Amino acid sequence: MFILLDIDYAGTNKAVIRLFGRNEVKLDTNFSPYFYIVPDNPDFVSKIKKEKINERTAERIELVKRKFEGKEIEVVQLFLSHPKDVPAWRYELKKYGKRLEADIPFARRYMIDKSLSPLGEVKLPEFEAGKASIRDPRVLAFDIETISDGPIKIGKNKITMISLWGQDIQKVITWAPVKGEHVELVKGEKELIQAFIRTLSEYKPEIVVGYNSDMFDWPYIKKRAEKYKLNLSFNKEKLVFVKRGRASAPRISGMNLIDLYVFVRDILSPYMSSETLGLGAVAQELLNETKLDIGGHQGMTKAWEENPEVLYEYALQDAKITYGLAKEILPLVYELGTIVGLPLFDMSRMRSGQLVEWLLIKEAHSQNTIAPNRPKRDTILERRQTSFEGAFVKEPIKGLHKQIAVCDFRSLYPTIIMSQNISPDTIDCEHADCKIPGPTGHWFCKNKAGFTPKILKSLFDERLKLKSGMKKMTRDSVEYKIADTKQKALKLILNSVYGYLGFPGARWYSLESARAVTAIGREYIKQIMETAEKLGFTVVYGDTDSVMLTLDGPNFEKTLDKFLKKVNKTLPAPMELELDGVYDCGLFVTKKRYALMDAQGKMVIKGLERVRRDWAQVARKTQEQVLRLILQGDTDGAIKHVKSVVAQLKKKEIPIDQVIITEQMTKRPEEYKAIGPHVKVARDLIKMGKPIEPGSLIEYVVQIGKGSISSRSIPAETAQDYDSEYYIERQVIPAVARLFEAMNRDQHELQGKQSRLEFFS
DNA sequence: TCCATCCGGGG
DNA sequence: GTGTACGGATGGA
């Protein structure tokens, strides 16, 4: 059986598709690049047939029937020998009319036309999609360590170690004199890179994962290899960098280089609670595994110089964690790949809008429909100018509330799109019986199912089927896990469609559709709030698709039940309001900023975390502790805690490392117009002979004195003292003030002109 | 309140 | 790679 792992094309004059399977490569010589032309007038067809560009004629020209923008039309389908010919032809044939689907990368074109999926079967010799698929490709995780002095710069210093982790391979290649079970000792850096190439070539991983490896590990290896004129080829497949917008991505054909950080950042992060997306934090949340603490970059330097064994353990653990993350994350990538039908290399680097777009292109193709062209730059800019009203967010009733029910719509926007048939091709149709305008003055056809709702419906139904099937499975079983991953992948795409319709770069952009979705959403949520209030609930807060309700008295649960039943009776299918959970208490600060705590003491915090590094630790820690105390009902204790931190700051009992503020240089120090503290400190550091480049992290401490904050900031390494007042007034107090304001409006107002500082003193 | 700028991950 | 693909928070005017 031939399983498709990766795909690309070769050939200089005639393109040949290369399909990478397990240990074999198959060539398909019978597929040609093509695009469509909609001739401005019928005479053009014969002219197009005579066209020659660079002395070459088209391979084949056909007149075909396709659907485009809702109409069936005759178009010219122009086949060429090589994808590289397309840009010239696309440009030259401009004079005949609109060119369509002239920017679909060749390998993607192949997968779409053949309905192939990554990790799916390809039947040979027909090159047709088969039914089988695998979910256990050979995965190898890797991580590099380098000598680190000063700011990170790709290729500046030597690579000291490369750690690798897979099912049956665990090793650290290094030239440092380290002893350890998994050490492969080599002579120097050159041999290290050679050993790495050899290992990959022999192990033949089907997927190679790293963490931030697109922007760090792979480009670093490439730079260092150049120094020794090493050829970075793995079983004859070269490492190349594929340009993708502002960034570029490393690629080795057949090996599926995947950067887990990119996928976490672009796809998973909205579903995660961690605000930072470093390997440590992500592994902690997703795996409950802890990254070894080596003591920051100073600790790393020290380990390298004095005790490389520590660095070896650290490197091995990083590769192990990366492998663990891959096991957790990749199944979702595989399922998305099956839904969208693109190579894993592309899939794993796409944002949700792109996932939707390529799914739509694939679906359009299967419906004999040509996709709209991508909007041009100026169109995108123009679209960006037009904003539209988003979701309804109710101003919360500030303060602490007890016993809170959280109800939300299951997939609000997708269900609105489906139930109202919202789609670029159903808007303002001509049927007389459809013309009942919605809240934005537009209507959507009632007679034919729209393009996007139809696709959503099939995803939605498949997900429901999976979910009901899962109820009969045991939670720990493999089949449950697979079904769960599938439904998550479906949910991810379902949730992305609304955003896609309003995304300026979308081919199927439809401002009026997106606008209608949020307008209808606002109507529903407001209606729900009214219903809740009529039943006696107090609506403490509500945002987009959720309401948070409290009710005094003994009938809480009964009324809640009544409420849900009543609401759901009136909602059109498949819309549904569900009980998300009941919380013991919650603190509401402002829109989007609140915290909830359940009976087990578990906190859900939204919008309040201060984990950004441009806040001093003392402020971040104090905020967290205050929040916990308030939710535990101990507001006095919280005030006391702040007072104690303030007192400690005044007495300089808080150590200096708690007041260090870290900011990154994004350009060279002399390029800044606004001289912020970190720029001023960067200039100081340069005077001290330290090299500062874009990317350098500047650690500073604010000192007592006159003048601006910038002028009073000095490098953290030279700081012996700090300005207590600054850290109290500008860091600690602002971080907690909102919380207390929400708790204690009256008391704060009673404070009148008294400053916040006095209040906490 | 609006607009420009900054930031992410990695050693 | 049949290129020309951020989005959210912040802080200054």
Report on the structure:
The protein starts with 5 loop residues before the first strand and ends with a helix. Strand 19 (240-244) and strand 20 form a beta hairpin. The longest helix has 33 residues, at 308-340. It has 4 domains: 2-133, DNA Polymerase, chain B, domain 1 (DNA Polymerase, Chain A, domain 1); 139-334, Ribonuclease H-like superfamily/Ribonuclease H (Nucleotidyltransferase, domain 5, 2-Layer Sandwich), CATH 3.30.420; 393-452 and 505-603, Palm domain of DNA polymerase; 613-759, Topoisomerase I, Chain A, domain 4. A 7-stranded antiparallel β-sheet has the order 22-24-25-23-26-27-28. The chain is globular and about 90 Å long. Helix content is 40%, strand content 22%. It has 23 helices and 31 strands. The protein has 761 residues and is an alpha+beta fold. The chain binds a DNA duplex (11 and 13 nucleotides) through helix 2, helix 3, strand 12, strand 19 and helix 6.
